[in-house]
Amino acid sequence: MPPSTATPSSSVTGTGTAAVEVVEVELAKGLGLTEALTIGIGTMIGAGIFVLPGFIIAKAGPAAVLSFFLGGCVALFCAMSAAEVATGMPMSGGGYYFISRALGPLFGALIGWGSWFGLVFASAFYMVGFGAYVATFVPLPVWALAVGMTLVLVALNLIGSTVAGRAQNAIVAVLVGALALFVGRGLFSVNVGLITHDFMPFGMGAVVGGTATLFVTYCGFGEIASMAEEIRNPGVNLPKALLGSVISVTALYCLVLLICVGLRPHGELGSSTLVADLAQDLLGAAGRGVVLLGAVMATVSSANASIMSASRISFAMGRDSLIWEWLNQIHPRFRVPHRAILVTGALTVAVVLLGGIEFLAEAAGLLHLLLYGLICVACIILRGARVAAYRPTYKVPLFPVIPLLGAGGCLAVAAFMGKTTFAAGVGIVVFAVGHYYAWGRRRTTLRGAWPHFLRRAVLEPALVWAERWGATPEEPPTALVAAGRPERERARLALAAAMMGPAKGRLLAVNVFTVRGAVGATDDLLTSYRETLAARTRALEKATAAVVPPGVRVTSHVPIAVSVFYGLLSAAETSRTALSVVGWPEPRLNSADPVPLLNALDNHLRSHLFVLREQSPVPARRLLVVPGSDPSGELALLTAARLSEAWNAHVTVAAVVAPGTSERVVAKLEADLEARAGEVTKADVAVLPAESLDHLDEEVGRHDLLLVGVPLRPSSRLNALVAELGGITGTSVLLVKAHPDQPLDLWR
Amino acid sequence: MLPVDASLSDTPTLLVGIANPETAPRLMNLAACLAQQAGASVVATHIVRVPPQAPLASARANPRTAAARQLLRAALGQCRCAGQPARGVVEMARQVHEGLLSAADSQRATLILVGLSELDPDRETSQRKFDRVMHRVARGAACPVMVAKFRIPAESRVLLSLPGNPDLDLLEWVVRSLARRPGTTLQFLHVAARDAKVSDTSSSLEASLEQRGLTSLGEVEIVTGESPLDETLNRAPDYDLVVVGGGASQTFAESVFGSWAERFTVQTPTNVLLVHAST
Prior knowledge:
heterodimer, A: ten-stranded mixed β-sheet, two-stranded antiparallel ribbon, disordered N terminus, B: alpha/beta, 10 strands, 23% strand
């Protein structure tokens, strides 16, 4: 059975016996390219294109087209960066998730709150736009219509309604149809002279200022990234949907603006219902009706999407303990986070009543610019940090130029926001940072990848640069492979090569030539030694050619010693081995201690110790890791990450609990395992109820290699595990024991 | 026998959608029977719907997910009793059909087997629109889909309606699976058009069944009539289980009103196994 490849899953088995009933949990991938594109386009084409053109033309003149184009370019650069990070980490939570994983919990809290408020401002903006349009045919104040519709949407979301979501396809069709009709008819009536004459009357500053106001019309593509874990084949569909939606919407906006400024002199184009007014000129009352219908539907659909997204961000923050868990409680009947929705609704109503439409647009735009700019930064950090959990299938071209352009563009546009908007933005930032230090910092265990970025993308290149200028290069790390038995050499060599390859290390294959007692240098002995040396070198060359990738240096060493232990110890000490790979001890019938050599190595080697029992082909394709909790556990996870990368293997990280453990404890363990595994590699997660490891026959049988982290204390645990796991058949077993004096950094 | 893409999967996988604890044991028994015939593995799945306001992963700690696990464990126990090992997957999805299709994709299913809830034959819409979820699954799946409807306890007398069964490989698999059950009697039924030559139809049909060695498993009855629906409905009360085929392609009328096989499933008083070839 092939494992589920894309989503993390958990599993719980019924008993620890052979008749195990495995029940896994998976997240469905229900969105294809069309659905993802529809979500992006539907969320972006909201009130903005119907409400804002009048404001922007009044601000920038005919060059308002350029404002929209600039906004599209910034959005495109950000969308490219978002596509990379979303394919590298296809999880719910969108921008918050990527930024918190790259920049740590402080920025996570900042952007979590920022995104939430950004969506509140955006919802309020859409609702005010809704009110402005509906007020043209319903004699009610704009604010009353906006508040009324907000309450309706909150109510629909509270009962878990999917009406608005299911109508998304129809709404997008009407929207794009209405705008295409407007553009198609308008192209024949455009007066080019109106566009070219006095194209930029208020200068470039006004153009960029216009972009600052209108950027809210591009908010929405991030919604695709936040649904990444629900998208089928995200490596292909996510970038296509993100870039496709931004490009198509930008083209549509620019065409609409070209028609607007080509129909009347820009001094007559200041209305908030400009597109509908012009549609009346071009298409008559029916055209105005279609545009009004499109505008009303667009505002409702965009506001609904924003309210839904806000509750999901709250969830993602709650998962990282950066927000009160109280807020994310699920309603038992409707299964929605009712408190988060209510808070979002209340804030939206308050903001509708407080702010004007231009302020709302700018505030939403500012907070989204902050979000998108930091996504670009996250893209640079995550790629530079080279963490195992980040493996994008789409990579931004011209890296890091595009992410830098995206981040710089966001910063430049944000600089043109109004003072009131800035004050609101600063207020939200102060609140978010204050809340983090007062509440979240003590609770969260989240860590960002930025230290890895600093070390791998900044410090290490700097050291390399320094070395070129005269510093003494360090010796490459060495892995010792006990290579006494030809039938086991290949597996151990393959394992050591996979571990040392990325560290540019070398393998030392050691075969001890034992001499018993005090003997002189007899000719027979020396001849035998030379023959052994030649045979071992030939065997090693043969084994190396089969399993060791080019670039990993392998050296044969045949020390003469009175016992295998002393031979291995002297080789390890001389070469300052970082890792020793030995074979599984054979049981000895006439000895109280069945594993004296392993005991001696465990007690005296000053390197990490791997004990391998090969029972299935290597390289293994399916790895089951039971890491434990101390440094050995961390080393086991790091080993799994290395092997997964080198062998393209699927990793399942598991914890074993006593049968009957409560669901709450199991859920917590799953979350902990996910967090630990996520730090180093992509892995499924499983919590397995069983009395002990050797009772997991069926689960172990589904994998090629079982990796077990051996706790440092008590020291007898290694022996116990050798005895415990000796009965496993059909699956290779690797015991991983870290040495406290050896750093783990080499394997990160 | 079972259509398997060897490049994708080592062994064929039968995905069973479990929703109703009352019919789950029979569905798992049927799945075990089909799986044993083809040497397939069985994966039982239950879909937990998550509203769009909450992330999918939020449902992990949901009481419904715990209940779904219990449901699946019971179903897996049933399958194991029938001598077939099985696994379970709780799929969290926005829509049921999305969940089933996603599970089929991730498990690389070679067949989807689902049960059908009781439809109200008095409701006009039920007769016209067979079942929206099943329609979407059948159209979206990259593998064949079987829909089982259980109404009566017995399943020993089986009628296999040949028209509408376009995939003979699939039919053969079902026939051989059902024939493995002790005490099962099989009868093939073909409804030919009134103006067709029965002898010609009979010889060509028997030849193709003979070629697959199926004639030894049951008798072949060929009748002439206007409508396969009416002819099959007339004979259905004499049997415990009727196997009907649903074609991969549909006319516009069929997509609106449902195929005759779907209408048969709604109207007949017996158990039904609707076999839908892959699109």
